[in-house]
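User: tokens in, sequence out, please.
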């Protein structure tokens, strides 16, 4: 290929890039990246224009610093302007920004470089710049790794890593707003089971809803049954009852999933004169600028600082445990527990109750779950006591992950399989 042809080919680069950029919105970023790409193409096509690059190569330390600055600016502007993360597709403007600037960073420093060209030695500056480059690349790698590779739910939905999990796995959402498949039509002749509850029913921390206990139950019961849910994170007994009463199909069997924190919602909580603890300590205004924009800062604040300096789990559990010991609260809570039973008797649907304990400390939470088991057992309601079924499993296998005490896939499977026998006994 002749020299003239090679230079003509280099001019095709910015021309093609300009045509591609025409489909993107007109922004300052598009202007900047077009300038970078056109400079790159022109520098390679017209040797006389490369004098600035040549003189920079004569000062390699300065060129290296400028290259690091360019790399940092490219990544920083991308992060601040677009907040990219796993599950969020790159816009055309982002693609242009990353591709165009990468072309400039990789090619501009070597425009018309000749191997025989004299490059002064950097001496001690080489080690310093190597260290600086390594640190920068590690920081960029950590930031991008947390954004695109670290997906993990947590107890209280604090962190951006949890937002990644929610974005990827909180689906499907049906017409009724539940993380579930669509409800069957009213004329469906199968035995319909409706599972009521909160985040344990919806499967917080479980990536795929087919691994949650209602859908494990559905799969194992067979074609004559259909299982759906009326559940949302944070729901207690009264909310679950409200959801069940407006569900588009009347159930033949009702399964109530009870967790110890259900006492914190409804008339029971109203009778408790102790304010709910501050389990989420928000960052200061200065800290928030960082935690809202950078995953490293967000991880440090929510996954390190709050879990060491502010024990949200203990504050939360202390409030719940004390509520069960309050006579007035417990009396009101029994009215809520009875309300579900009254409704199922009204619609002539058997009630089954699944009682979940604190999966991080099953034994100490028995004083909270045993009264629930006793309450329903005395009223001839079948009860699946998860404390008994999960007691022999280590906490790490019972829970979703180290930051999320919701049931693991294994715990969900144990619950679903335990329900199969009970449903076969009570279903009409």
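Assistant: Sequence out:
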């Amino acid at each position: 290929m002749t020299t003239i042809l090679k230079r003509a080919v280099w001019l095709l680069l910015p021309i093609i890039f300009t045509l591609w950029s025409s489909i993107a919105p007109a922004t300052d970023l598009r202007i900047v990246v077009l300038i970078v790409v056109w400079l790159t193409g022109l520098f390679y096509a017209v040797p006389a224009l490369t004098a600035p690059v040549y003189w920079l190569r004569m000062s390699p330390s300065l060129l290296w610093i400028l290259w690091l600055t360019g790399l940092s600016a490219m990544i920083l502007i991308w992060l601040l302007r677009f907040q990219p993360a796993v599950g969020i597709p790159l816009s055309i403007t982002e693609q242009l920004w990353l591709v165009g600037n990468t072309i400039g960073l990789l090619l501009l420093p070597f425009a018309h470089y000749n191997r025989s060209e004299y490059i002064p030695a950097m001496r001690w500056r080489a080690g310093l710049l190597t260290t600086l480059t390594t640190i920068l690349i590690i920081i960029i790698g950590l930031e991008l790794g947390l954004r695109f590779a670290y997906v993990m739910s947590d107890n209280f939905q604090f962190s951006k890593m949890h937002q990644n999990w929610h974005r990827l796995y909180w689906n499907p959402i049906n017409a009724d707003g539940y993380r579930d498949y669509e409800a069957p039509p009213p004329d469906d002749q199968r035995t319909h089971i409706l599972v009521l509850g909160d985040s344990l029913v919806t499967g917080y921390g479980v990536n795929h809803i087919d691994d949650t206990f209602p859908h494990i139950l559905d799969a194992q019961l067979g074609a004559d049954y259909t299982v759906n849910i009326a559940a949302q994170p944070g729901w207690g007994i009264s909310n679950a009852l409200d959801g069940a009463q407006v569900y588009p199909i009347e159930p033949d069997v009702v399964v109530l999933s009870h967790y110890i924190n259900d006492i914190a919602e409804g008339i029971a909580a109203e009778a408790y004169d102790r304010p709910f603890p501050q389990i989420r300590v928000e960052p200061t205004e200065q800290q928030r600028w960082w935690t809202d924009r950078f995953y490293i800062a967000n991880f440090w604040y929510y996954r390190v600082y709050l879990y060491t300096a502010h024990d949200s789990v203990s504050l939360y559990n202390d409030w719940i445990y004390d509520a069960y010991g309050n006579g007035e609260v417990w009396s009101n809570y029994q009215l809520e527990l009875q309300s579900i039973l009254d409704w199922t008797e009204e619609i002539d649907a058997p009630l089954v109750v699944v009682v979940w304990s604190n999966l991080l400390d099953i034994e100490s939470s028995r004083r909270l779950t045993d009264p629930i088991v006793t309450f329903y057992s005395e009223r001839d309601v079948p009860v699946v006591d998860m404390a008994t079924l999960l007691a022999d499993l280590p906490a790490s296998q019972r829970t979703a992950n180290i930051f999320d005490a919701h049931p693991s896939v294994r715990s969900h499977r144990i619950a679903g399989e335990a329900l199969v026998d009970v449903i076969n006994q009570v279903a009409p």
